[in-house]
C-alpha cells in the first residue's frame, strides 16, 4: 500500500473513531439538540412498540404496556436529570465560559445508542423470556413457554444492550468534556457523581411518572 | 516555504533569535532576542490564529470554516490563550530574575 493510501486510510479510521466516540468534536449546540431530541422521541416510539422502559439514566427494562407518551417522557427525564448537574459541575470546575445549549444538546445526542437498544428490544421473544423469568422468580406458572430461539434472541439483545450502555456512558462523558472544556480527574469524578445522582433521582422521577399518570 | 522552528529539536527548549539580516544591504544584527509571543506558538496554533483573525474573531464562522463544533473551537482557543499566558509569565519571571 502506498504511503498516501495508508495515510488516507489512517485518517479515515481516525475520523470514524472520532465520529463514533466523540461526535461532539463536529456537532454541538442547536444541531446536536435537535438531533438528540428527535432521537429521544423516536426511541420513545420504539419503546412503546416493545414495552421497553428507560426507567433511569442508564436503565433499560421490559415492562408493562403504558400510554404512548410515557416512553418519550422517560427518555426526556433521563436526559434532563443528567444534563442539569453536569451543567452546574461545569460552572464550578471549568475555567472556560461555555454555552447552556452545548451541554444540553450534546447530552441529548449522547443518548443515541439507546435508539439501537429500543430497536433491539422489539422482538416478541424478549418479552416472552422476560415474563417467563419473572413468573419463575415469583414461583407462578409462566403464561407462555419459551424455546431455544427465544432464549438466543434474548441473550443477543442483552449483549447488545450492555455494549450500548458502555458506549452511551463514553459519549456522555465526552459530551461533558467537550461542552464544558473539562478534563482529568476533576472531570471524571464530577461526571461519576452526576451520573450516580441522576440515576437515583431519575428512578424516583420515573416511578412517580408511572404511578401518577398511567 | 520554510517553517520557522520555535523550539530546540534536541531539548525542546524555546529558541531565541541570534541574528537578523537585511536582504537589501546585507546589514546583519547580532544579539539574543526573544521571539514575539505569537511566534513562540506552534505552527498549528499560529495557523489557527491566522484563520481566526481572517474570520473577524467569530467562533461560529471558525467552526464552519474548520468543520468542527463551536465548543471544540472555543476549547482550542482557550488552550492557546493558556499557552500564551504561560509564556508571558515565564518571560516575566526571567526578567525579574535578571533584575
How do the helices and strands line up, and which of them pair or pack?
The complex is a heterodimer of chains A (214) and B (99).
Chain A: H1 3-21, H2 29-50, E1 52-53, E2 61-62, H3 70-93, H4 100-109, H5 113-120, H6 124-137, H7 148-180, H8 184-213
Antiparallel strand pairs in A: 1-2
Helix pairs in contact in A: 2-3, 2-4, 2-5, 3-4, 3-8, 4-7, 5-7, 6-7
Chain B: E1 17-21, E2 28-33, H1 43-54, H2 59-66, H3 70-98
Antiparallel strand pairs in B: 1-2
Nutshell version of this structure?
The complex is a heterodimer of chains A (214) and B (99). Helix content of chain A is 75%, strand content 2%.
The CATH homology group name of the domain at 36-98 in chain B: Winged helix-like DNA-binding domain superfamily/Winged helix DNA-binding domain
Please give the oligomerization state of what you see: heterodimer
CATH class of the domain at 36-98 in chain B: Mainly Alpha
Strand order in the largest sheet of chain A: 1-2
Low-confidence segments of chain A = none
Largest sheet of chain A: 2 strands, antiparallel
Outline the structure in words.
The complex is a heterodimer of chains A (214) and B (99). Chain A has helices at 3-21, 29-50, 70-93, 100-109, 113-120, 124-137, 148-180, 184-213; strands at 52-53, 61-62. Chain A has 214 residues and is mainly alpha-helical. Chain A has one domain (3-213). Chain A has a two-stranded antiparallel ribbon with strand order 1-2. The radius of gyration of chain A is 19 Å and the shape is globular. The model of chain A has no long low-confidence stretch (mean pLDDT 90). With 99 residues, chain B is mainly α. Chain B has a domain at 36-98: Winged helix-like DNA-binding domain superfamily/Winged helix DNA-binding domain (Arc Repressor Mutant, subunit A), CATH 1.10.10.10. Chain B has helices at 43-54, 59-66, 70-98, and strands at residues 17-21, 28-33. Chain B has a two-stranded antiparallel ribbon. In chain B, a hairpin with a 6-residue loop joins strand 1 and strand 2 (28-33). The termini of chain B are far apart. The interface between A and B is medium-sized, with 17 and 9 residues.
Amino acid at each position: 500500500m502506498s504511503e498516501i493510501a495508508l495515510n488516507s486510510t489512517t485518517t479515515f479510521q481516525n475520523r470514524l473513531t472520532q465520529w463514533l466516540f466523540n461526535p461532539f468534536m463536529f456537532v454541538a449546540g442547536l444541531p446536536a439538540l435537535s438531533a438528540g431530541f428527535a432521537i429521544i422521541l423516536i426511541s420513545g416510539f420504539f419503546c412503546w412498540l416493545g414495552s421497553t422502559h428507560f426507567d433511569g439514566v442508564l436503565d433499560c427494562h421490559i415492562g408493562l404496556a403504558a400510554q404512548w407518551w410515557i416512553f418519550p417522557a422517560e427518555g426526556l427525564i433521563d436526559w434532563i436529570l443528567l444534563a442539569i448537574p453536569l451543567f452546574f459541575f461545569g460552572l464550578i470546575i471549568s475555567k472556560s465560559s461555555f454555552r447552556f445549549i452545548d451541554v444540553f444538546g450534546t447530552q441529548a445526542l449522547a443518548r443515541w445508542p439507546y435508539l439501537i437498544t429500543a430497536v433491539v428490544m422489539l422482538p416478541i421473544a424478549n418479552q416472552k423470556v422476560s415474563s417467563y423469568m419473572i413468573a419463575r422468580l415469583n414461583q407462578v406458572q409462566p403464561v407462555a413457554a419459551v424455546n431455544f430461539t427465544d432464549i438466543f434472541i434474548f441473550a443477543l439483545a442483552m449483549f447488545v444492550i450492555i455494549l450500548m450502555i458502555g458506549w452511551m456512558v463514553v459519549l456522555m462523558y465526552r459530551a461533558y468534556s467537550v461542552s464544558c472544556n473539562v478534563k482529568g480527574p476533576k472531570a471524571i469524578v464530577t461526571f461519576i457523581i452526576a451520573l450516580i445522582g441522576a440515576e437515583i433521582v431519575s428512578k424516583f422521577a420515573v416511578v412517580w411518572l408511572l404511578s401518577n399518570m398511567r | 516555504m520554510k517553517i520557522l522552528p520555535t523550539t530546540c529539536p534536541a531539548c525542546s527548549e524555546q529558541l531565541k533569535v541570534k541574528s537578523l539580516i537585511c536582504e537589501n544591504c546585507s546589514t546583519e544584527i547580532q544579539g539574543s532576542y526573544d521571539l514575539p509571543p505569537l511566534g513562540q506558538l506552534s505552527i498549528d496554533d499560529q495557523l489557527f490564529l491566522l484563520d481566526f483573525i481572517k474570520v473577524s474573531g467569530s467562533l461560529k464562522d471558525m467552526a464552519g470554516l474548520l468543520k468542527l463544533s463551536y465548543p471544540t473551537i472555543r476549547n482550542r482557543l482557550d488552550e492557546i490563550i493558556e499557552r500564551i499566558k504561560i509564556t508571558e509569565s515565564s518571560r516575566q519571571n526571567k526578567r525579574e530574575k535578571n533584575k
